[in-house]
Specification:
mainly alpha; 8 helices; two-stranded antiparallel ribbon
Length: 198
């Protein structure tokens, strides 16, 4: 195959698997729209929390068709630093046990730490951006109000975890993610293209 290099490693890089490619968690809507044959919205929407490990929701009436039409007609959520409470408070929730839901954002941050990922600032350097010395240095890639929230959460700019840092960036023109996640995802895709013989 053209461009294939048998001597390079196609293994997924840690920062791709543990942080950058999880950007889609910010794109989740709190509910799945249902639409009739004429594409008019039907109520109620199906809440995400009601679908975890619950395939029975699909067996109700014409639910599969309604959900497919809803998915096809609903615009994509835009990337931002917010993740719906359906997966930050109610992930895998047991409805018989109050407050049993898990927090996907917290899991993603902890996963990055468990995997030994360097902080967001290190990846800025890897991606040919300047190393931030203070929080205000982030304002070129991250909106000011978000930088202020990061300042309240982290003692130093070097403490920012990769997942929230990358998710906080303004998406590139014509893109879905900001420069750091675009760099990491692009790096991984180049490796897969060059190194994976399949």
């Amino acid at each position: 195959r053209a461009g294939y290099d048998a001597d390079c490693d196609a293994t997924l890089v840690n920062e791709f698997a543990a942080a950058a490619f999880r950007f889609g968690h910010s794109l989740l809507r709190p509910g799945l729209a249902r639409m009739g044959p004429d594409y008019t919205e039907k109520q109620p929407q199906v809440r995400l929390r009601d679908t975890f490990f619950n395939p029975e929701v699909l067996y109700q009436g014409n639910m599969v068709e309604e959900l497919i039409r809803g998915l096809a007609a609903t615009p994509m959520e835009t990337l931002d630093e917010f993740i719906t409470t359906e997966v930050t408070n109610h992930l895998f929730e047991n409805t018989r046990t109050p407050y049993s839901g898990m927090d996907l954002a917290a899991i993603n941050i902890q996963r990055g730490r468990d995997h030994g990922l360097p902080g967001y600032n290190q990846y800025r350097v890897f991606c040919n951006m300047s190393r931030a010395k203070e929080f205000d240095d982030l304002k070129k890639e991250i909106p000011s109000p978000v930088v202020e929230r990061l300042r309240r959460l982290y003692l130093h700019v070097d403490d920012i975890d990769l997942f929230p840092g990358g998710l906080s960036e303004t998406p590139l023109m014509g893109g879905v993610v900001g420069p750091t996640f675009a760099c990491i995802i692009g790096h991984q895709f180049r490796l897969l293209r060059r190194c994976d013989r399949f």
